[in-house]
Design brief:
Layout (H helix, E strand, L loop, with lengths): L1 H21 L3 H24 L6 H30 L6 H21 L1 H8 L6 H4 L26 H25 L3 H11 L7 H14 L9 H12 L6 H9 L7 H20 L2
Helix pairs in contact: 1-2, 2-3, 3-7, 4-7, 9-10, 9-11
Length: 282
């Protein structure tokens, strides 16, 4: 399963990047991205319906980690599409008020799901068999997305986790809109950064690992400030959104084997490069 999912994710990210580079406006970008993710989810659904999970842990992993990763992309682009489609025509104050109302709505969602959000943010697992297994006793939750109507491809909280990840990302996105409206001069800087097209081509987890390492080393602002500032800077430089970095970091902490594969790989690659240069000079 892992190889198939990784290939689907890689292909989806390449498609989304191509859409980002060719879309004429934000509305078109969000709409085309939505359909690309929907197609990927449909393929994954067909795969899972013909796949037998090795054990309970693999099933939990799929519905807690894998499916929400794709589904959060779908929700993010869907909500962004409606945000753009419903955007009022008005002055700067009108637009700021509109985007702030959307962020307030996001805040209300997290308040309504406060207990589950704590479970999500702390990366807890004690209730996983109840939340993320298809044969578990069904909870009274209505499906919010058509692909979740099939009980063989859904369970209690897979969609909720995806929605939380999507809404965290959407909130940051909308806050960015608000910032640019409140600081008009920042548009030119942001536009220049986008023109550079520096693309992060490793995993999002790798970027998060790098950000935490930079922050932990105190390499930026003497280690003062929040790690989120380092992540935001890297996202801007490399044109990527990493999503819920806190949850990913918690997963890194509990890895049974190597907890820093990206940093170790960087060290090894750099040392090999130095060795190759040394050989050329001998």
């Amino acid at each position: 399963m892992t190889a198939y999912i990784n290939e689907e994710w890689k292909g989806l990210q390449e498609t989304l990047q191509q859409i980002s580079e060719t879309a004429e406006n934000n509305l078109q970008h969000a709409g085309h991205s939505y359909y690309a993710v929907q197609a990927a989810l449909q393929r994954i659904k067909e795969f899972i319906l013909n796949y037998k999970f090795r054990d309970l842990q693999e099933e939990i992993h799929f519905f807690k980690e894998v499916k929400p990763q794709f589904l959060s992309e779908l929700i993010f682009h869907m909500k962004l599409f409606y945000a753009e489609a419903d955007k009022p025509i008005g002055n700067t104050e009108t637009l700021i008020a509109y985007y702030k109302q959307l962020t307030d709505n996001i805040g209300a969602f997290f308040e309504r799901n406060h207990s589950l959000y704590i479970y999500y943010r702390m990366n807890k697992s004690d209730l996983d068999p109840q939340y993320f297994v298809r044969t578990a006793e069904k909870l009274e939750l209505l499906p919010e997305y058509s692909l979740d109507n099939d009980p063989n491809f859904s369970n209690a909280y897979s969609y909720k986790f995806a929605k939380m990840e999507a809404y965290e990302r959407l909130n940051d996105h909308l806050q960015g809109y608000i910032y640019l409206l409140e600081h008009p001069g920042a548009n030119a800087v942001t536009g220049e950064k986008k023109k550079q097209r520096n693309l992060w081509t490793d995993t999002k987890a790798a970027l998060i690992e790098l950000a935490y390492a930079i922050h932990s080393k105190g390499a930026v602002n003497h280690g003062k400030g929040d790690v989120k500032q380092v992540i935001a800077a890297l996202e801007l430089i490399f044109n990527i959104q990493v999503g819920n970095f806190y949850r990913t970091f918690q997963s890194m902490r509990i890895r049974k084997k190597n907890r820093t594969p990206f940093l170790d790989g960087c060290k090894g690659s750099l040392e090999r490069r130095m060795d190759d240069i040394d050989l050329n000079y001998t």
